[in-house]
Amino acid sequence: MQSHDPKALPCPFCGCTPKKAHYHGDERDGYMDRTVYCCTGCGARVFAQGTFNNKSSYADNSTVGDRALAKWNTRTKK
């Protein structure tokens, strides 16, 4: 499912609005979720996915959306 996230900054390359897509994993990948931010103009994208620890065979998806947004909004200093 794709949606617009009002907290996402415009694309650092072309200035267009990004779309956010969230994908839910299944048993084949430990229910690992993925969140992707993709520019609607130039196609630049970043993603984050769930992480595994040694205590469980299921992915920890609690910070996936926040980490993807932080990656998208990261800018280099000029």
Helix count equals 1
Distance between the termini: 34 Å
Q: How would you characterize the largest beta sheet? A: 4 strands, antiparallel
- Spatial strand sequence of the major β-sheet: 1-2-3-4
Output mean pLDDT.
90
Shape: elongated
User: Helix amount, in percent?
Assistant: 10-25%
For the secondary structure, the number of strands is: 4
Element order: H for helix, E for strand = EEEEH
- DSSP strand (E) fraction? 15-25%
- Structural class computed from helices and strand pairing: alpha+beta
- Return residue spans where pLDDT drops below 50 for at least 5 consecutive residues: none
Question: Nearest-angstrom radius of gyration?
Answer: 14 Å
What's the SSE blueprint?
Layout: E1 2-3, E2 18-23, E3 34-39, E4 45-49, H1 64-73
Antiparallel strand pairs: 1-2, 2-3, 3-4
Question: Any overview of this molecule?
Answer:
The chain has one helix at residues 64-73; strands at 2-3, 18-23, 34-39, 45-49. It has 78 residues and is of the alpha+beta class.
List keywords for this structure.
24% strand; four-stranded antiparallel β-sheet; 78 residues
Short summary of the structure?
The chain has one helix at 64-73, and strands at residues 2-3, 18-23, 34-39, 45-49.
